[in-house]
Every structure is written in structure tokens, then in C-alpha cells.
Design goal:
The relative contact order is 0.07. The chain is built from five helices and no strands. Among the domains are: about 1-50, no CATH class; about 110-190, no CATH class. The protein is mostly helical.
């Protein structure tokens, strides 16, 4: 074990080499151009090992003494401007999302009313497969109770009037619209 301790550098030697490297780094750039060869240190006997304390190289930089008190420069007058008159920055508003693009207009074979008539015919067909509703009493016979809302009362009163109007006007509307569509198709074909 004594052979091993004799070959290993002591703590003082390690610190001395670190100090030497630091002092070399602080040396001027001229000495950095010519690097010194690194000499290996021969281990000193433990009995002769004395703590090596090297003083750091004196720093030749000029030291700034702060003995005078700092005074802020006088503020300049900015005239009649008042600090309160400055408007705050407006809040950042998110960009509005673009409206969805409208569906392209297609040259339809059937007009809107004819499509509506066909849709109502399909709705009527679907209604025939539903359970029949219980007959609704007249509006004056229906007292306001828990399940009877104003909307239900208005719907029951308007249903007969709407039925009469549709019976009187729907065939003429469908006939007119079908004629217009047929004429438009004939003009485009000819």
C-alpha cells in the first residue's frame, strides 16, 4: 500500500497544479501562443511535503472606486402631456372564425316548392305509420293543467286553419311551380 500512496499525488500537489493552471489562464495572450511543456511532477516523500500556498498573481486591472454618490439626471419636461391621457393598449381580440362557405347553387331539376310538396307527401306517408293521436278538445274546453302548455294550445287551434289554407292553395302553388320548372327545362333544352 505504501507503493500506491507514493505514486499518487497528494492533495497539496493537486491543489498546486490547479492553481498553476488558473494562473496560466490569467497570463497574457502572448504566453498562450507558446505553450509550455507540461513537466511531470515527481512525487515528493510524505515527510517533506509542506503545504504549498501560492498567492494568486496580482491583477493589473484598474480598480473602479465608487466614492461619489450617483445622482439621476433631471427629468425633462414633456409639455402639456398628462400621463393619464395615454390610452391603454386595446385587448387582443381573437380573429373571427370565417363563416362556413355557402353550399354551391346547383341547377336543380325540381323547384323548392315541388321539393317541399314531395317532402310533405313523404311526411304524410310516414305519419300514416305512426299511432293516431287522441282527438284534441276545443281550446275553450282545455283548462291549463300540468301537461298542457300554451304552445300545445296554439298548435291545436292553428292546425284546422292551416289545413283549410293548404287545401285551398297548395294544388295551385304546386301546379304553377311545376309549369315554371317545365318551361325552364324546355328553354334550356331548346
Amino acid at each position: 500500500m505504501t507503493d500506491q500512496t507514493a505514486q499518487e499525488p497528494t492533495m497539496e500537489e493537486i491543489l498546486a497544479s490547479i492553481r498553476r493552471i488558473i494562473s496560466e489562464d490569467d497570463a497574457p495572450a502572448e504566453t498562450a501562443a507558446a505553450p509550455e511543456p507540461v513537466a511531470e511532477l515527481a512525487p515528493e516523500p510524505v515527510a517533506e511535503a509542506a503545504p504549498l500556498v501560492e498567492e494568486p498573481a496580482p491583477v493589473e486591472d484598474e480598480v473602479l472606486e465608487l466614492t461619489e454618490r450617483y445622482e439621476a439626471p433631471a427629468t425633462e419636461s414633456i409639455g402639456d402631456l398628462d400621463v393619464a391621457d395615454v390610452a391603454p393598449f386595446p385587448a387582443v381580440q381573437p380573429e373571427p372564425t370565417p363563416a362556413p362557405a355557402a353550399a354551391p347553387d346547383y341547377d336543380s331539376l325540381v323547384g323548392e316548392s315541388a321539393a317541399a310538396s314531395a317532402a310533405s307527401a313523404f311526411a304524410g306517408l310516414a305519419a300514416t305509420f305512426q299511432k293516431p293521436e287522441a282527438p284534441v278538445a276545443a281550446a275553450q274546453d282545455m283548462p291549463f293543467v300540468s301537461g298542457n302548455t300554451v304552445e300545445a294550445m296554439v298548435q291545436s287551434m292553428l292546425r284546422p286553419m292551416l289545413k283549410d289554407w293548404l287545401d285551398a292553395n297548395l294544388p295551385a302553388i304546386v301546379e304553377t311551380q311545376v309549369r315554371k320548372e317545365v318551361e325552364r327545362i324546355a328553354r334550356n333544352a331548346g
